[in-house]
Amino acid sequence: MKHQVKSVLSLLKSGNQNAASNRWVTFLYCLLIAFLFWLLIVFSNEYKAPVSFNLRYINFPQDKMLANKLPGRVDIEITTSGFTFLGFYFNRLNDTLYLDVSKLRKNKNEQDYYLPGYSQAQQFEAQLGNQLKISKIDLDTLHFYFDKKITKVVPVRLNLNYEFEKQFQLSGKIELKPSKIVLSGPASVMNNLVELNTQQLNFKGLNKTILRAADIIIPAELNSIDFSTKKVVVKIPVEKFTEGTLELPVEVLNVPEQYQLKTFPSRVKITYLVGLSNYQKVSADQFSLLAYYDAKDEEASSLKLKLVKFPEIVRQVKIETENVEFILKKK
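Below the sequence we write its predicted structure tokens.
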């Protein structure tokens, strides 16, 4: 009997729990439906929200250059339904808006053009779509100042400091490629532009030829200018040098025809430095050592020597003696 009573009580308890569970499920369904209806009502309303975009300008006049700085971003307030804004927010692929410069209006000043705020809004709304309306834009009337576009060739000045390792020197001219740059920009900026400078380059202990790229320094006032290049390549030809020696005949000029002049010594030693690659290319016939006889100076006993010719591949040429004695005899 007790066992039967317990069974009946267990069934009643189980039934009560199932009923309670069913009531909770029904409540949750009703709550979800109510929430969905609430979302539908909320997102059906119109809202205003701030959005920020990058700003780009297109269709500039081909024969003119912009002479003033324009804003690079725009903050706008858009008005739309919650659903549209939600879709716009999650599907937004482009964060840039464009302003068509060809639609500018002209002031009395031929170089001054402007674009009013409402015209900007029209262009932006066309890009955002019909369901989005712009209720506020942070840009006031934009002014565009144009100048005549010109092209100019400007030389580049190399800023360079260098030191060599012992016995090494330049084996040729330092090259800069390109040495001149083509610029295009507003005449008001370009007219006073004389040259461009490279960044400072410093080298120590050079013992081989160097090829190095160098940036051109571009001042802030030149940001509106187009450069054919903004880098140059510097070549510093370096080679090891050695000393060479030669004996050269002394040639005397202005000797009277009836006289014969003989110098002592008749040949003079010279020393020079030459790159190892050119050592075998140097010969005596590439040099010319001259002395000038002055008939008015009867008391002179020596002649001053002067080296008037030597090849480009040698440097630091030194004459062993600066003067030679001479004897003048009639023929």
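Helices lie at 2-44, 82-90, 117-128, 187-190.
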